[in-house]
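Title: Prediction job returns without error message
Component: structure pipeline
Severity: low
Priority: P3
Assignee: unassigned

Description:
Job completed but the reporter wants confirmation the result is attached to the right record. Sequence as submitted:
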Amino acid sequence: MKILILHRVPYFKIEYHRGISHDRHEVTYFGTDRALATLPPDLRCERVSRPGERPAFEEARDWLAEHPRAFDRVISASEYELLDAARLREHLGVPGAPVDQVALARDKVLMKQAVEEAGLRVPRFLPLTRFLEQDGRVGWSGRTVLKPHRGASSEDVLVFDTPRQAAAAVTERHTGVARLDAGIGLEDFQVEEFVSGPIRHFDGLVQGGEVLVLSASEYVGTCLKYAQGESMGSFQIEFTEETRTWVSRALAAVRIEDGSFHLEAIVDEAGAGEPEEELVFLEVGNRVGGADVVATVELATGVHLPSYELRVLLGEHVAEALPEPPAERRWYGWFVHPGHHLAGREYRGLDGTRAFRASSHVVTWHELPSGAPLPDHITYQAGETVLAGIAASDTPEETRDWMAGLFASLSVRTGPAATSAPEVPSTSSVPSVSSIPSIPEQVSA
C-alpha cells in the first residue's frame, strides 16, 4: 500500500512504526523541515519537504502536480491538518472520511448543532456574527465564553461576566485578541453560555461507529487557566455504561466513525444531588488527546491509541487484536506546568517539588534543564514546557490529591535570558499583570 502522511505532529508522539509496517508499505512523509527532522534517521520511508507557508493541502496538491503519483491512503494525525488530508483525499480520489464529515469534528458550531440535534445537551451558543446582530441579547444572562470555531489549546478564548459585556468588548475592539480588535475574523468565532462544573475528557478508539476502547478522566485545573500560566492535569476515573452510551451517541452525531477521539464534557453542577450526573457536551476531536493522554491510556488499558488508529485507517479490523488491560488496575494521571507566560526569560529550577519528585506516585517526571529558554508559545510537550509527567495511585482520588498538592506547592525560578540585559532573578508561577489583557477571566475549553 502507498501511504502519504501529512506530517506535523512530532514522530515520537505518534510512533508511526507501531501501526504501519514501513517494510511492507511505501510510506511518504510530507512536512516542513522541522517536522521531518523528528523522523528516526533509519526509518524506511520517503521524506518530502514543504515550505510550510500555505495550507498542507495546497502545497501537497502543487507538489503532486509537478510529481504525479498515486496513493492508497492519505493520513494526518494533526488536528490542524485533518481537513487538509480530507481535501487531498477528495482531490486524489483516495478512500477515507470526506471533507463535510471531517468538518463536523473540527468546527465547534457545527459539532454542537449536530450533538444538540441528536438529543444531547450542549451549552447555548451562537456564531459571533449573529450574536453581534442581536447586540448580545441571548437566551442566557450569566458568564459567556468567546472562542474560535476551530481553535485549540484555549488560545484566544475569553470569558465575560455577561453576554452584553462580551458584545461590548468585541464591538469596541478591546478584547485583547489581535484579529478581533482589528475588526477581522469575526466569522471565525462563536459565543456560548458558561456552564459551571468539573470538565471531563473521554479518550478512545472507534471503528465502524463502534467504541472499542474508552478511558474517562477529569481535569485538575483547566486548559484556559493553563494558557494564563497555571498548572493543569487530569486523573482517570471510573465510568458507567450510561456514560459509554452517551459518548457513543456524541460520536455518532458528529460522524466520528473510525480512529481515535478526544471528547470533552462538563458535569453540570446544577444537577448536584441528582441520582444521575448530567454531561454537557463541550467539544470533540477525531484525534488523540494532547499532553500525556496517549501514555496514560496505554498504561491503563494496554492500547497505544495512535497505533491502532493507523491500523483502522488502513482498513484493518482491530477489535480482536486489542491487548488485554494490565492485571493490576492503577489510576493514572498526567500533569504539566507552563512556561510560555514567562517567555523571554530562562528557566532556573523549581521550588517546592523535592518531595513530589521523589514520590512513589511518579511514573515520569520531565523538567527543563536549568538555563533553558522558556517557550514562546503554549505547549504541553515534555522538553518544551517547564514540567510534564505522569503519576499513578491505587485510587482516582489519591492521584487527584497528589496532583493538587504538587500544583499548590511548586513555583518556578527564572532569570534573564542570555541575550537580555542583566536583571535580578525572579520567582514566579503566574504571569505578570502586564502579560494578561485587562478583561474578564481568560478561559478554558
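Comment from assignee: result matches the submitted record. Confidence is low (pLDDT under 50) at residues 420-445.
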